[in-house]
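yo, Hypersensitive-induced response protein 1 is done. seq:
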Amino acid sequence: MPEKAMGQALCCIQVDQSTVAIKEQFGKFDEVLEPGCHCLPWIFGKRIAGQLSLRLQQLDVKCETKTKDNVFVNVVASIQYRALADKASDAFYKLSNTRSQIQAYVFDVIRASVPKLNLDDAFEQKNDIAKAVENELEKAMSAYGFEIVQTLIVDIEPDERVKRAMNEINAAARMRVAANEKAEAEKILQIKKAEGEAESKYLSGLGIARQRQAIVDGLRDSVLGFSVNVPGTTAKDVMDMVLVTQYFDTMKEIGAASKSSAVFIPHGPGAVRDVAAQIRDGLLQGSSHTNQVVGRAVKNLNEREENPQQVHSPFDRVRGKHVLAQVS
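structure:
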């Protein structure tokens, strides 16, 4: 009978791992029970007031505040904390709502730190804000038996319009850089194109010069060969024939070109005679002028030779001989 009464007077309880149990005796704190099996003699007024988890816990706090440049932002902080086994009684009895207490301290620190910073500085100094929150929580919560393991500022969310404006500023800056690079590339292309055109025109000029030189050489050879092979012809006759031949070649080219502009020129049989007459008149006028120059030069030389006492400059004598040499 006594053994049965003793069995009813005693009670066994189980405390899980990473958990402690708070034992009271007649409503007063008695001790902290570690994980395992424990006997609880309720007949002596002992009971379990509750259990306290020692696991790491996380609390996410979203706080709205304003930056120094008057931009409202939502700062999201993540607090990782746990109860200390050696201060389990303080953690159990001193705080009724741990999460609300931590949230209040986070609000206080964030709303005191962020208004001192501009929006860009707030993004750059996230670690400094997190460190300030962690230090303040460590001092406050250690008295209640809690340890602040880590504090993170996981996000800073400005208003949607502010984010859109920031993205537009960034996009405009990148477009400006892209425009500068594009303009520089176009500049290089224009320079290279101009250099290529200059080189092309230089080479084209060389080709035209060589072409004209070849034409002149060919005409000279033709005139000389015709004068030698056909006795009694002069260089003037040969040039007349060459010019008339070139006239007909030009007429042929104009008629063969389908995209050429309209050109009105004499095309009857008398046109050839007129062209030859015009060329002949031009040559005769040139020959007459040349004969006049030669006559004056010969006359001057004869006068100087007949009057050797008269002073003449060597330049006059050389110039007269040079004129005669050109005509001959």
